[in-house]
Fold this protein.
Amino acid sequence: MQLEFYGAAGEVTGSCHIVVLGGRRLLLDCGLIQGGDLPFERNRAPFPFDAGQIDAVVLSHAHIDHCGRLPLLWKRGFRGPVYATPACRDLARILLADSATMQERDAERESRRRRRHDGKHPIEPLYTLDDAREVLGQFRTVRYGEPREILPGVEVTFRDAGHILGSTSVWLRLQEAAVERRIVFSGDIGQYDTPILRDPEPGPAADLVLMESTYGDRLHRDRAATLEELGGILRDASRDRGNVLIPAFAVGRSQELLYELATHYDEWRLGDWQVFLDSPMAIEASAVYWKHTELFDEEARQWRASLRNLPTLPNLRLCRTAEESMAINRISNGAIVIAGSGMCTGGRIVHHLKHNLDRPECDVVFTGFQAQGTLGRAIVERREYVRIHGARVKVQARVHTLGGFSAHGDRQDLMRWYGAIPGRPPVWLVHGESGAAQALRDALRVEGVEAEVAQPGVTIDLGAAP
Ligand SMILES: [Zn+2]
């Protein structure tokens, strides 16, 4: 019986781990590598295992760095089941289709470039929409808290991780001959006390914990202060008669923002505004969120019970078509535009920035992390000029970064989640850059917990007595 770290060990992307027992192989996540060095080459490299020999996959949640290589796994021979919660499956359907479309488009563009420049062979997409559809057909849903035997000797129980809708921490009970081991894979852990989603759920004792460490070195800004700041920005913007642009990730952040705008509608005087959700993917993801109200926290449920609906924005417009999106450019003031991509690397937010960034009466509000090298980062760093669609645009709008929105828990949240597992089991830290992982390891060790940072390719023998 053994556990091998493969992806998201020593970094925050490409989550993938393997459990081997009784000659069977179980994959925990199969994520796409995003950003960093050589993501193109790394995603295309052979898996360090035979995809056809994987018996099943357990998926912690639908973010693409956790599920984005499932279609590739299918393409390379995997034919087993993929276990996920129903909401995770619904979101994965949207995100994998989008990822496949992007893979096809990128390959086409690269092939054209190769033909023009050096006559090289065209390249194949990493995977296609058909591959994504095939692997989505392999999904089997398991509800929270219901133990399920997924392979001989492997029982899985999902518990809410409070990160995005349908996200789980995975409790595994492994049995090989007389040896039984209980392992917990945290998945990505959310913040406590955030809107819509429930708090990360505690679970029973375990022998070993595999835990994320994204913000293991950080404490988030207080949520109430963050909301106060957003309210202030909107009130000032209303006075200055400009537009407000909010770049946001389609899944999770967009829904959270809509919810906060709706619950603070009067307080922030939002009746003076038109609010646009300008992202077909965010609109689809919102439909999944509003469909799974059984997964909401108490506050969101009470809203729903009292209004027989969720808090809604009477002035919200959903923009599905490109024409609807372009029409927003004719509005010079009074528009709040929520659009992707979250780091402004593409998507509709880019043309809104082109139209508003050089206007001092406008505001750009960032609610998420902006990676090095992205347009979002250049704006956050307040460069004098940025390049958009080949044009130089002067950054004159007011730029704000709100620190309290995060789908990931901070160090305190991670310690709280771990602290709820009885027996203080040893921990292997994954899904964190080395500084963050080491900081969390040290914090755990101070509490007397055995903690190590996982390295790719390292195998842990689970057969020995704990
Ligand atoms: Zn995630």
User: Anything to note?
Assistant: Residues 109 and 247 are 25 Å apart (CA to CA). The two ends are 12 Å apart (CA to CA).
